[in-house]
Specification:
Mean pLDDT: 93
Helix content: 25-40%
Strand order of the largest sheet: 18-22-23-30-27-26-24-25
Radius of gyration: 30 Å
Structural class: alpha+beta
Largest sheet: 8 strands, mixed
Length: 641
């Protein structure tokens, strides 16, 4: 039996071997760290017996699938602890999720946060007991009988939904047995660090007609240090919550009169408009033209684009003059009409057409989350119309533009290339040309990327940019999608050098994605302390007393005349109080003015970055801050205030 490992090396064995035994043969350390494996590309349990030639990859917590097996085992440990402490509890489901695990539980007396501490303590005992997890199977009828005897109605329902003749897998650890497809760790001992993080309500099977269960969330790690790092990140995220900071800094608000429809306040509009000014300047430099298309368009348009059939549940509709219309959820169809508004030649291409379009999508109320998930947002769309020969260069141009945007804000990012899904439109030749165009552009630029096989849009392959913020969270914002279907649906044409009509290739792309969501990300990335060029208020003038108000007013007027966003604090408060409040409001610069400053025509500069920067000539300060704003500099904090 030949087993080909991830690095291409081959191990030969004369008998069948369990995956865990192969891991031990390779390295005892690897066997201890292993959580599951991939056998010929499929995720399998460590107990899986290999009896023929195959490709094998041993997975650890560092991989997505390996982390899933680890978290899934942690969910079973939690369920076992719950059953020990509260045996009357009925078990529903307990999967691993992106950041940890949960288990849905039915108990007459609802769980409280105090219960979580008791459950954690029992989980620690189970881990110390080093219980071996064992997998076994039963027929469907045997599984139903087992769970009926155990009085577990939710498990009975799950098993009964499986087809007749299905073989059902179980995992047991000590006295606890659960219905589960796996994979799982070999023992409870490996789950060394965990924390139950929260409680929530969850309808059985997500159906509001069903009973409300209690969902207990948790996180688990192989090492306590890793858990501590995660909990620190969560605490940082809590302090940086854009909803809290948005309210405190006067940036935006939400209203019960329009759930999911954000209101931008004056300071928030300064921030938003600064971003949009930057977007427009950048796109002019990169050869884009800007268009604006209507918010409401006829049903016929949305039928032609495919949205009416495939996206109608997320669209807001209305009737005008007895005809159906829809509020646009996307800008693309309007862009098609702009392209078709006049004849096009190959000499006109590529056409890079940008739009800051307000779109509306119906999101479920439970999914709304500040600016991150809203029902109306400004999408920084661009549609590029081109010939097939121009694909590679245009993709590179877009990737370079997105890199420039993210680098400006200090974001790291990684790139993913998603290929043709099973449910797709178009010929094999078109898809191959499009995919190789994207791949070739990434290769030309030397960008590292992950390939997501089969995760493209139904109309074409795509490149996604996942940015990483200052506390390590990732966000999917920028995207580049190649589309050969919509130009066909709208019968777009250009006249080629041969005088014949040809179909253009089209790119959909966004850099910010949603302006509103990007602002939410920026608030949390910078914890509300924006770089000076982006800050809604860049300078606050702080007169020491009423006697110096006239000079303070002159300083303020000079700043405003220089295009610097400023405020003046005219309240009869002590200067220390004014400084502290400006710091709380995360103002980049404070100019303290009193008798000495007035006599010399100077200002005393305090900054968020370096504290007391001493006295400066007002003209020199203005010149320095104008340069900082023009260069879009991100100053690092030198001292803690």
């Amino acid at each position: 039996m030949k087993i080909t490992l991830k690095d291409g090396s081959v191990k030969e064995y004369g008998q069948s071997m369990a995956v865990i035994d192969v891991a031990r043969d390779l390295s005892e350390g690897l066997a201890r760290a292993a959580t599951c494996a991939k056998v010929d590309g499929e995720v399998k349990d460590l107990r899986t017996v290999l009896d023929k030639d195959c490709e094998l990859e041993i997975l650890t917590f560092d991989s997505e699938e390996g982390k899933g097996a680890f978290n899934h085992t942690a969910s079973h440990i939690m369920a076992q602890a719950v059953k020990r402490l509260y045996p009357e509890t009925k078990l529903a489901i307990g999967p691993s999720i992106a950041n940890g695990f949960y288990y849905d539980l039915d108990r007459e007396t609802p769980f409280t946060t105090e219960d979580l501490e008791k459950i954690e303590a029992e989980m620690k005992k189970i881990v110390k007991e080093d219980l071996k997890l064992e997998r076994f199977t039963r027929s469907r009828d045997e599984a139903v009988a087992y769970f009926k005897e155990k009085e577990e109605p939710y498990k009975v329902e799950l098993v009964e939904d499986l087809p007749e003749g299905a073989e059902i897998s179980f995992y047991s650890q000590g006295e606890f047995t659960d219905l589960c497809a796996g994979p799982h760790l070999m023992s409870t001992k490996a789950v060394k660090a965990f924390k139950l993080t929260s409680l929530a309500g969850a309808y059985w099977r997500g159906d509001e007609k069903n009973k409300m269960l209690t969902r207990i969330y948790g996180v688990a790690y192989p090492k306590k240090s890793e858990l501590d790092d995660y909990l620190h990140m969560m605490e940082e995220a809590r302090k940086r919550d854009h909803r809290k900071l948005g309210r405190e800094l006067g940036l935006f608000m939400m209203s019960d009169e329009g759930p999911g429809f954000p209101f931008f306040l004056p300071k928030g509009m300064e921030l938003k408009n600064t971003l949009l000014d930057y977007w427009r300047k950048l796109h002019r430099e990169k050869g884009y033209v800007e268009v604006s298309t209507p918010i409401i368009l006829s049903r016929h348009l949305w039928e032609n684009s495919g949205h009416w059939d495939h996206y109608k549940n997320n669209m807001y509709t209305t009737v005008i003059d007895e005809e159906d219309y829809a509020v646009k959820p996307m800008n693309c169809p309007g862009g098609m009409l702009v392209y078709k508004s006049e004849p096009r030649s190959y000499k006109d291409l590529p056409i890079r057409m940008g739009e800051l379009g307000l779109v509306h999508r119906h999101e479920k109320s439970g999914q709304l989350h500040g600016l991150m998930r809203v029902r109306c947002f400004t999408q920084d769309d661009a549609h590029i119309f081109m010939t097939p020969e121009q694909i590679r260069d245009e993709i590179k141009g877009v990737a370079q533009l997105i890199d420039e945007v993210y680098s400006l804000f200090g974001f790291k990012y990684h790139v993913e290339l998603s290929t043709r899904p099973e449910d797709s439109m178009g010929s094999d030749e078109d898809w191959e040309m499009a995919t190789e165009g994207l791949r070739g552009a990434l290769d030309d630029m030397g960008l590292d990327y992950i390939v997501n096989e089969g995760d493209g849009a139904f109309y074409g392959p795509k490149i996604d940019f996942h940015l990483e913020d200052s506390i390590g969270r990732t966000w999917q914002c920028g995207t580049i999608q190649l589309d050969m279907q919509m130009p066909q649906r709208f019968d777009l044409e250009y006249t080629g050098a041969d005088g014949e009509k040809h179909r253009p290739i089209m790119i959909h792309r966004v850099a910010f994605g949603s302006i509103e969501r990007f602002i939410g990300i920026l608030i949390e990335h910078f914890a509300g302390a924006f770089p000076t060029w982006l800050a809604p208020v860049q300078v606050k003038v702080l007169p020491i007393s009423d006697k110096h108000m006239d000079y303070a007013q002159k300083v303020y007027e000079a700043l405003e005349a220089a295009g610097i966003r400023s405020e003046i604090d005219t309240r009869a408060e002590k200067i220390g109080y004014k400084i502290r409040e400006a710091q709380v409001n995360k103002i980049p610069y404070m100019l303290v003015v009193g008798g000495k400053e007035e006599e010399t025509g100077k200002v005393s500069v305090r900054s968020r970055f370096a504290g007391d920067e001493g006295q400066k000539d007002l003209a020199a300060f203005i010149e320095d801050i104008q340069k900082e704003i023009a260069d879009k500099t991100i100053r690092e904090v030198e001292v803690e205030e």
